[in-house]
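Review form for a predicted model. The reviewer records the input and the model, then writes brief findings.
Reviewer: anonymous (R2)
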Amino acid sequence: MLYDFELAGRRVRLWQRTGESYEHVLMKALGYAMFVGEFPALEIEQRVGLRYKPDLVARRSNGSADFSKPFAFWGECGTTAVRKINWLLKHAGVARLVLFKIVNSPLALTEELRASVDVRYRNSERLIIINFTGDIMARTLERRIERVPESWYTRTVV
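Model under review:
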């Protein structure tokens, strides 16, 4: 199914793939609306030539001094294995990894990640969890999201 969104003043069309929930599509839209201002070249579901395909990604600009991290931003929505998170932080050259969730207990996930991801891979706010409120679908029924207010989510640095 194809969904039309108005995100941060831009029309964005997102496909809901077979087996993919609407919540997953919505988290991609919300993540885009949250970070496109900071990363104007933010892309949704673009292959980047690695083992994994990001839900959201922004490549480093050519003017960046840090060539060791080719991805300024990488967003994962919904369920993401700890093994994948570790691989992305260790091997993919991701400067900031943001996990978008709609869960009842983000504290449990935070504790699990702090225990399983070495501190050197999650320093300087490199790994962040954005957990949307349980009523996020009701708040976004019109699919017009100019910005994502802080009341719609909690932000946790791992």
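Findings: The CA atoms of residues 40 and 58 lie 8 Å apart.
Further findings: The chain has a mean pLDDT of 94.
Recommendation: see findings above.
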